[in-house]
Amino acid sequence: MKKLLWLVGGAVIGAFVAHAYSRTESGKVFFEELDRKTDEFSTAVQESYKARESELRSAAQKVESAIKDLRA
Predict the structure, then answer these.
(1) What is the domain range of residue 31?
(2) CB-side exposure of 42: number of CA atoms within 13 Å?
(3) pTM: predicted TM-score of the whole model, two decimal places
């Protein structure tokens, strides 16, 4: 229980520090850059997921086609 209290306390203190830092000019620049990088990463993950999903759908269609050919 004591460790959980330390964890929650650290998170709260960290949130206050981050909020105070975001009010400074360098903090604004830092968080804008962080947001941009996060958006880039998120977009890259989404594109990769969609590409892999497309590959798997194509492979599944090939397997279904092969099964149909075997049954015919």
Answers:
(1) 2-71
(2) 6
(3) 0.66
